[in-house]
Amino acid sequence: MDVLPPGVAPPDAGHRNEAGGFCGLRRFADDATYPAAANRLTSAITVASGADSRTTGALRTCLDEILENVVHHAEAAVGGVALCQSWTKRQQAEVVILDRGRGVLASLRASATADDPAGHADALRDALTLGVTATPERNAGMGLAFSRALVLANGGDLEMRSGDAVVAASDPRQDQKTPFDFRGTAVRVTIRTDRPLDAAAAYAALDDLPL
Amino acid sequence: MTISLLDRLGSSPAGRSVARELRHELEVLSVDAPVVVDLTGVEVMAPSFADELFAKLDGDLEASGRVTFTGMDPALETLVRLVRRRRPAAA
Questions:
Q1: Which residues, in sequence order, are CB contacts of A171 under 8 Å at separation 6+?
Q2: C-alpha distance from B3 to closest chain A C-alpha (Å)
Q3: CA angle B6, B45, A56 (to 5 degrees)
């Protein structure tokens, strides 16, 4: 299968209307291409749901943070891919961001300053924690923590899969073991489209956490 | 001079590299004259953007009045306080 260059959309499936809540695979590989992917995913969801500008901005911000993580932490040779779907009756939307990079455990272990997680599940829990980053000089470890606070307040969830573990932000203590070792990282964001995404509340929730 | 962040980057600026370019621009422009960055109309900001722009900005630039931020709504003030609290002030 030919690999599409970053920023180039795959052929339409033909039976979907992207303006109506579906966005097919979007590939992104660097700072030049991931913002457009975040915009496309956001539009596919918010146009279909009629979200206001604050919710739209909050969703785009959340996706921007997650896609940027792939570009700067995954060390994936071909970048990552993302797609989304929204369901009008169910009042729900789902975004999946996927890469075949080194995985969260390897990324954190490569850092001289991050704590050494015991395994994949601990690494995923750490990644969702405010202040944890493999690159503290460059990053602040806020993107995933913000996304977590944002979607949980909405009634949604953020699930991460890497290696042999799956951890959900709604209950990170309960990790699941997968029957196979997934090389790379997958993030699934589910949101309720009948509720706003409140970035102000997410900022306040993070501000309440201890240093 | 005044820079409108809304006009420049829209109501939900994001992207660490975008913020880095803006911060560098402020550092250069403020050498010759005070710069005001107006955040009126900005509703949401990515934490990585805020960290790059506000937490990494040389504290002397704001303290001396060479760079001023205005029009920030209370939610963004919370975010800016958060990113500065979590990263020691730039020298």
A1: none
A2: 21
A3: 85
Sort out which chain B residues have CB atoms less than 8 A from A143's CB and list them.
46-48
With 0-12 CB in 10 A as exposed, 13-18 as middle and 19+ as buried, what is B47?
Answer: buried
* pTM of the predicted structure, to 2 decimals: 0.89
In 3D space, the residue among A153, A137, A141, A138 whose CA is nearest the CA of residue A104 turns out to be: A141
d(CA A150, CA A191): 9
Asked whether A102 and A75 are in contact (CB, 8 A), the reply is yes
- Interface residue of B48, B54, B87 to substitute, partner A, most A CBs within 10 Å: B48
Give the type of residue at B81: R
> In Å, how far are A95, A135, A168, B31, B49 from B20, measured between CA atoms?
28, 16, 32, 17, 8
Q: Is the pLDDT of residue A20 over 70?
A: no
d(CA B39, CA B9): 10
- Record the tokens describing residue B42, joined without a space: 């900005």
- What is residue A173's three-state secondary structure? coil
Neighbours of B15 (CB within 10 A): 23
Mutate to test the interface with B, among A61, A70, A139, A207 (most CBs of B within 10 A): A61
The torsion defined by the Cα of B13, A168, B78 and B17, in degrees rounded to 10, comes to: -30
A-chain residue closest to B76, CA distance: A200
Round to whole Å and give the CA distance between B36 and A50: 35
User: Does residue A148 register a pLDDT over 50?
Assistant: yes
For A86-101, write each residue's pLDDT tens digit.
988 889 999 999 999 9
- Chain B: residue nearest A55 by CA? B44
* Residue carrying the six token digits 């706003």: A196
Query: What does the alpha-carbon distance between residue B19 and residue B51 come to, in Å, rounded to a whole number?
Result: 9
